[in-house]
Amino acid sequence: MTGKRQRASIPPGRLSGTGNTRTVVRTAQSQRGRPAGEPRTIRSLPARQRRRSVAALALLVASLGACSVGTSSTSDEVVLTIGYPAPAGVGVLTTMLTRDLLIHSGTDGSGEPMLAKSWSATDDGTSVTIELRADVIFHDGSLVTAVDAKASLDELLTLPTRLEREPVLGDIEAIVVEGSHRIRIDLTRSSAQLLLLALGVPIEKSGPGGDSVGVGPFYLETQDRDVTTLRAHNDYYLGRSDIDKVVIKTYSSVRMAWAAMMRSEIDVLFDIPIAAREFTEADTSVRLFSRDTPYAYALIFNTRRPPFDDYKLRVALSHSVDRQAIIDGALRGQGSIASGLWSSHWVYNGKELTYDYDPVAADRQLTDIGLVAPSRDAPTSATFPSRLRFTAIVVDDRAQLEPIALEVQRQLRHVGVDMQIDAKSREEVFQQVDGTDWDAALLPLNTARSLGRLYRYWHSSGSSAVSGFTGADVALEALRLASTEAEAMRAAGAFQQILFDKSPAIFLTNPETTRAVSRRFVVLDEPGRDVIETLWQWHVADDTFPTEAAVN
Amino acid sequence: MRSITTRFVMLVATAAVVPLLLYGAVSVYSLRAGTRQSVTNGNLNVAARAAEQIEQYIGHHVRVLESLAATLRETELQPWQEVVILKAYVLDLDVFRELTLFASDGSVIATSRLGSPGLDPPPTSAEPPLIAEVSVDDDFLPTTTVSLAVTRPEGRAWLVGEVSLEELWRMVDRIRVGQQGFALVVAEGGQLIAHGDPDQKARIASGENLADHALVRAAAAGRSTASTDDTDSRQSDLVLETEDDNGRGVLAAAAAVPSLNWTVIVEQPTSEAFALFDRLETQLVFVILGALVLTVAFGYYWGRSFIRPILALTRGTEAIAAGHLEERVAIGGTNELHQLGESFNSMAERLGQLQDDVRRQERQAMFGRIAAGLVHDLSHPIQNIGNSCRLIVKLFDDSDYRATFRRTVEREFSSIKRVLEDLRNLAQPTPLERFPVDINRSVADVAESMHALADTAGVGLETRLSVDRPVIEGDLFALSRVYRNLILNAIEATARGGDVTLLVEEHEARVRVSIHDTGTGIPRDRLENIFEDFETTKRRGLGLGLAISRKIVGELGGDITVTSTVGRGTTFQLEFDRVEARPAVAAAS
Question: What residue in B sits closest to A284 (Cα-Cα)?
Fold first, then answer.
């Protein structure tokens, strides 16, 4: 299988320039010194990532060898079955496996070539030219051209939620086809950098039957309520997967899915509950792959109204919470302290700002703003004696949010703050936070690698900016308009500092997500990346080739 | 026929095998029984300890809940305080997933949940503490609910706690019997609620029911009859050798958790459980086999050393029998076999001496016989020559007599020479020369030469020749010697007045010469050896005549036979192949 290649990626997509000829050029070829699609050069990655990537490449080479000797014979179809616990829909999963994006966001937020082979921006940041790969074929067998890319972008722009998805898309003035595999995007403002980071757009079109077809490693074969079947895309531009067929089964509960996994009826369990990981990991037939989710649990304050319009109160409360205790208790150690940002993003330059647990400082700060600690002499009062009482609305999620909310409630009580908890359904919670009649809400924030998310949550005009926080608008605008790497980092740093100093939310934890994969398959596990993303590169384990242990 | 060695080895081997095999069988049986009992007891103990720990584990949580219930009962707490306490329990004690205090009417007094309680109040008729069936929640973990009564001023309330049995799993996971032995826990209804083998936890999630498991039934029966049954009998019921789903033999031992009506089963593959026994059994078998081989080997060695003198004696006697009287045996030691060897050697020594004596006597006898024979054979010619010499003095002028003298001397010297030739022939036979021989002529010539002797003996000598003058291939001189020997013997054996008849006759392609006498005949017992060297019926003579005659006849391709009747006479018959006479030769002869 000569076409087996690893998905290309390049170093952080920082803008750079030299005088008047300042032009950003991103090409897989120029970065790697070899044709796009071949194993990437990892020289520019951090040393640790380099080492792991070398191991990953070793596995890839091994898998190439495995193909050459017929690990997956054509007569014996290799089928991988994924257990997907309801009620989560399989849409996200099928999209991951059937759709490839124009530009892929790397683990550090940098743009990585995917369908776009290279790109460049003009000096003033108002135009971006994207060179497409010429060897990409849709699932229906047709070649991907610039017209298709333009159509996909146009389709995206027609969506009512486009600005909610990526505000920077609103800056697009025109999309021009400049060649069979080249498009130019003209912008109304100098926002090329953010645009590039927002171009994680799946390229797709309507197929012969009217169904949408993409270019991913698998295509949708059948789908009903319980079972979705994907088939390997024979003409996948990075090489056909060794896995001929992916079957996604939905189960009524995680327990049912887990039981199926234990019975070897499925090869992948999409998500393992935190409480179950210890026992699942002991199963010798499976292997767990955990990573920090892009979600952070945060207690978001309604900064529009008192008392949380006072950032000093918010900061004091941020100091009052022992996040590690939450991780150790509610998350059983499977998570990390959240900063509210994807701090691995290159724009933060490795800087991470998190609050220390300091109840003494919190007490002092609360006192300083006039919230005096209650007297301990009235234990028989009808309510908890507190210096501050507010209500936090929480989704009635017993598994994770409830223990986190209880722990936060208890910790705040230690500093004399009574957080009443109002547990509601998911819909009720989101409905309420869309308004202004609430104090605080315990919500998961998607701190995904895209900087566009920052707008969504923290720019006062963002669609998910429920807190009403306006303090970061200037910084976010600066980030949006940044046209150099330094400008982007400076703006991001400023925003990060504002988020820390003004604390519109108590950022609590980033929980880990865990996939369970049968040891029947050798899994390419790249640091920070969801193993599902590399599923097309898995192959059936063979003792004659390195196992996944060699990769890790 | 088995050799002495084989018999001896078999004897030793049998003597060793029987006790060794008996010892082995007894040892294996004892080992098997002891090991089985030991392993079974060990596994039973493991199961019992596990059951005890589980009982303590559940009991501990019940006691914690009872403590909480006491807190809620005996202190006048504000509702918010009760909630705080319940939440604190849930936060601090992982084992409690939810705690809810229900009023007697089922309404919620306080709960650790943020929203509505997930638990239901127990039936009003229930008697505390009430422990519900175990279920596996969505986190894959086993849970149960424990309900306790709380007496409050407003009436009886229920404290219901959802208890995670996660630690129970850990506890069961930690139980290992050997490398491959695991424990499993079965709830009262047969539901599998914990399995120590991580790869078998799917059975729990699948809701596997083991109510029909023999040990579960036995444990349940044991619980119900614990006070009446014999302990040993109950214990034997709690052990089972069976097969798992993979067809692998397992040794299962069970113990009941009385307060919960649960059963703990410890399963261990029999291959591992009895591995020690198998090893010991193998070692024992090898030791026994080794001992057996060594015993046989030593038996063979010692047997060989024991019978070696006997074998030496056997070889010695065989050598003696083969005439090797110089053979001796060397048997060391001082035992009876050594004495037997010495006796054998003495016997062989004595035999040698006797053989030498016999040989010496035989030589002397033969020398005497040869001397007598020479005297006998030579005295007659010499006497004839002497008589002729005496007569020649008187009859010298008689030309006929001189001629007769000459013939006589020549004939007698010829006889002497013949005797000497016989002796020389005996020592070094002269090669025969074959020429056509007129058999009539050869017989007639000899008969003529013997007439005088026959006349002297008073015996008639008659010759009947064949009419056809048959010819044979032969040596005339040698044939003449044969005729002469036979005629002479016939004359000597025939009393005066008897007859000796020479008969030449043809019989198809053969020519037969018969020498018949009317003499005394030869006894039957002598006839068999009459042609042997130095065998004679006469009192004197070398006894070489017939032996030489048979040798000559045989060399000429003829046969010589003898028939004799004692008192009536003897007939020697010579038969030769007849050949066509060549005129010149025949004429010449």
Answer: B199
